[in-house]
Amino acid sequence: MKSKFILVAFACLSFGASVQAQDLIKQVPEDVELVAAFNLKDIVQKANANKLNELLQKAGFFEKAGISANNDIKNLGVDLSKPAYFYTRKTDSISFTEFLFSLNNKGQFEQLLHAAGEPKAFSNGYSSVSLKAGSMLVYNDHIARFISATANPTFFDNDSIAGRYGIKKVDYIARPADDEDAWADTTVVAMDSAAVVWDEAVKLPEQVSPPVAIDVEPDTVELAAAEIQPPVVDVVGSEEVEMHDPSYYDSLYTAYEDQNRKNDSIRNGLLEKWLLNEATRLLAGNYKSLSSADQEKVQKNMGLIRLYVPHVEDLYRGLTPYTSLPYYYMGIKLDKFKTGYQDGILDFAQEGSVLKLKGSVGLDKGLAEMTKRMYARKPNSKFSKYLTDKTLGFFNVNINSEAYLTEMPAYMAKYYGGLLGPQQDVLEWGLMALEIALDEKAIAQVMPGDHLVVVNGLRKFKKDYIDYTYDDDYNATEVKKTKEETLPVFIWMFTSKDQRLIKKGLEMAVSKHVGQVHDGIYAFSTKKNMDVPMYVLLKEDLVMVSNDSLSLNDIRQNKMSGPTNKDFVKLMKQNKMSAAMDLKKLPDMLKEMGVSPGKQWEEMLTQLNQYGSTAITSKGIVGNRAEVEMSTRLPQTSDGAISYLMDQIIIELNKK
């Protein structure tokens, strides 16, 4: 009975801890642009807490901050066992950011803030500490929140909005000689910005008592323009000043600068007011939280750091200043642009000695089905034997050319048609004409869509070039010279079941003396022999293009030597797209090419001999998500990749 009670109690404690760990994500508003989640527990564990302390100590973190924490991050008062979150949200007038993290010792945390000043009571049990303009820190016994605000620089470009807040646009221009009235309308009188009198709604008190949430959006906060109009001051005195008088231009500049200072003062006052309102709403819980579905996407199977964008399409539009682009005036409406993208996730993770950056984007149903058809092709198994132990790197991509050509007109019309507004019907007509003109099946026979580019080591090439000699009168004479260059050897190959068109083109080039053929290998020299010739080989159902005739000749005679690179073959076979480079081969390759990285990078390049491969891969569409991954295999250590990186940073700090 006692053991059952212990098990039940343990389960309740576990559930309570799980709920508490999720509390911070519930503080994130629903209408955010992006959220970054930090798995502090895993970061500290994988970085090794002792190494992290050593790194911070050597970097001067504890000393510079004046922190009495015995050089241990565990004594900072921050709860390193719970996730921390950062997010951004914006209105048409202002952008807000917030960084939230949990505390386990408020007293220790307050010791970090001594340089910023004494904490003051704020709202809803929170204390506040003054920071630089446009930012503030609020905290209670369990949570700390850094909140900052940045005004949208284009918000006040609208004359009616600027006028609402008493902001006047000024230009530093000279008075037109023939237009006294126009000058009177555009000249701004000088004034000291210190003379601006703010009402109590705008002026921020030094000691802020618990504020009351204001149910208005930032861009609707109005200041009485009449109350903040500048007093009229004579900029040049009672006597008229001639335009040629230098004091005339000095007065213009003074008026210009004074009005700009006043405008800045108004903007800064609004920024502080809006920031205060935002903090008040957040602490009062007046914002609807991120949906449970979005919360799950932020937290489920999270690596070390996760970046989550709830609405990729909205974020893209927000980054596109379409109103200021010339396309807007040509009838192209970027606000009608559709991507078919939904949410986006980017994960930074560690798996043993491998660091990974994983990304995925949700697609709407139509785009997901369309993309699956376009990438419904497997890698050509014949490619495998060309990935050998000599291979430095490769790139492989597989698309279904027939499906791609069939789907693209419909894709362009659906997702890009809205850009052209009234011209959308012209685009649709053109795409239809293109679809009729193309024979997708015939093109797919010539080039089905699987491609492989392989870099297999280096080779010395003879290169002709033109030099000049000069006589005593500096008359130049061309001299043809030859030199050797060591260059990477590459082969680009793709499947072609119908090679008639390609072969006809090659034979036409030979007949016109543009190229030549020997033992089935076509050679083409470039202009003035300044570069390495290119070679083409047709073998079975493969077309191969290379800068090395010897490699193609070996392939033609089936003399490819060396065992296959199993890691590269596995990457190629398991992905729709893959690219990889063997980092440990890179130092020898650069040395053989005569490339000197300099002393600063020489040691780092030498260490690459211990590294594995770095790769970018994509499995295409998984469910309704397009996935891509980048990985790098670091030297094998008992503590893993992050710990290895910490060691390298500490080594560099010890050198200073």
Specify the structural class.
alpha+beta
Low-confidence stretches: 1-22, 174-241, 322-329
Specify the biggest β-sheet.
Answer: 20 strands, antiparallel
Helicity range of the residues? 25-40%
Tally the beta strands. 20
Radius of gyration: 34 Å
Percentage of residues in DSSP E strands: 15-25%
Q: What is the residue-averaged pLDDT?
A: 77
DSSP helical segment count: 21
Distance between the termini: 63 Å
Describe the global form: globular
Entry keywords:
656 residues, alpha+beta, 20-stranded antiparallel sheet, 21 helices, globular, disordered N terminus
How would you describe the overall organization of this protein?
- Keywords: Signal.
- This is DUF4836 family protein.
- With 656 residues, the protein is of the alpha+beta class.
- The protein has 21 helices and 20 strands.
- α12 packs antiparallel against α13 (401-416) and α13 crosses α15.
- The radius of gyration is 34 Å and the shape is globular.
Helix-strand layout with pairing:
Elements (H helix, E strand, L loop, with lengths): L1 H20 L12 E5 L1 H8 L1 H10 L2 H5 L18 E7 L3 E9 L3 H6 L8 E2 L5 E4 L4 E5 L3 E9 L7 H6 L15 H7 L59 H39 L7 H8 L5 E5 L2 H8 L6 H4 L11 E11 L2 E10 L1 H10 L16 E8 L2 H16 L7 H14 L2 H7 L3 E21 L5 E20 L4 H12 L3 E4 L2 E4 L9 E6 L2 E5 L2 H8 L9 H9 L2 E6 L3 H8 L5 H9 L5 E10 L2 E9 L7 H15 L1
Antiparallel strand pairs: 1-2, 1-8, 2-3, 3-7, 4-5, 5-6, 6-7, 8-9, 9-10, 10-20, 11-12, 11-18, 12-13, 13-17, 14-15, 15-16, 16-17, 18-19, 19-20
